[in-house]
User: What shape does this take?
Amino acid sequence: MSGSAITPWVIGNWKMNPVQAEAQQLVSEFKTLLEQQAIDAAQCHLGVAPVAIALGSVQEQLKTAVRPVYTVAQDVSRIAGLGAYTGEVSAELLKDSQIGFVLVGHSERREIFAENVQILNAKIQNALAAGLTVIYCVGESLQQRESGQAEQVVLQQICDIAAVVEAEQWQNIVIAYEPIWAIGTGKTASPEDAQAMHAKIREGLTQLTSYGPQMAILYGGSVKPENAVELAACPDINGALVGGASLNAASFHQIAQAFANTQ
Ligand code: PEP
Assistant: This one.
């Protein structure tokens, strides 16, 4: 086995896309590709994050895939349990529907929906308590990078969650480093810059938890088949959170293949 000892993760974030019929088609095409060109489950974890109303149907469709492909929620309520909270979906309800993974801290949630540290920490606390794995997104803005603050901002975002993550729960956290200026823009961090930030994140995690050395740190921001091989070759890049390219089954499969091939 070459490459990192950490099994990579490739997760597709579909955001507020696509309509049901297209989602079904996308999953169906991806399942066919997995049958034609296998990606060993031991070499890469796979997941897709559809819109909330498609979680059940996508999960059902994925049950007959040739290998596990996890269904990931894009969001979870900051309120735990059940009750009079119109519009909300709690971590317990996700767990009850056999959804084991959730994205928290995506820059679109932080910026567009004004999710601050208190809100994100409540979501993380609830998700972990319910037994979910959290894919926690961090990343700096262009202005923060240009003013030399990128590392400080990202490390602070990592430290922010330490207040609510109990010692053993770190093993249920996957980090996704997503520089905001690279999301949906076609601009990718160079493999050198991404690796440098991932190494810093690894250092920061290792100071916070003994699980730090074995935690997966994914890169996100315009990952596509054309740049996946180079990114996958970086020792501290343990997978990808893929937005736009995950809406194309062949592109998503190629990206997953690039990361699986490092194992
Ligand atoms: C994302 O939203 O998590 C993302 C990385 O998007 P894109 O791949 O489209 O940049």
